[in-house]
Amino acid sequence: MCSAKGTSHETFPVTVSREYPPAPLVAVAAVVVDKEGQILMVERGRPPSQGMWALPGGLLDLGEPVRAGVAREVLEETGAEIEIVDLVDLFEPIHRDTAGRIRYHYVVIDFWAHYRGGDIAAADDVDDVAWVLVTRLDDLPMEEETRRVVHKAHALWRQANGPEGAAPSSRAG
């Protein structure tokens, strides 16, 4: 991986347990938007959100810059190459077991990004991947916080790409 200054540095995957972790785990995710305004979504293949639709992303490696981590995770899970635009929000899913103990605790840093290419396919810990219209988000099982982050990022995309939603260079006039 490369640092923000471009110097190559080794990174290390986080090896602590995701279930009942000793501390919150830092993760990254991206609302990847294509030229038509569709969102790249993944169906999670592992707990805690197995079977739910989510944003592509995962744990940040030790020593890995956040933006490099989100680009790596999106590529690993979906095959998509992205251009990160900006930070959108922070998402903090905390799941407790029936005894009230913290079973999962993530701090997810959410970005929005433009899709730049790549062959889209489910990989890594993902069961499925799909381009989804924002108007169809309610058709998919997902955390309400994920829907909120997607809507917020999509609004930023619309604002950046003009009222018709198309990139300014591709609009007539």
From TrEMBL:
GO terms for molecular function: hydrolase activity. Residues 23-155 form the Nudix hydrolase domain. Keywords: Hydrolase. Belongs to the Nudix hydrolase family. This is NUDIX domain-containing protein. It comes from Caldilineaceae bacterium SB0664_bin_27. The lineage of its organism: Bacteria, Bacillati, Chloroflexota, Caldilineae, Caldilineales.
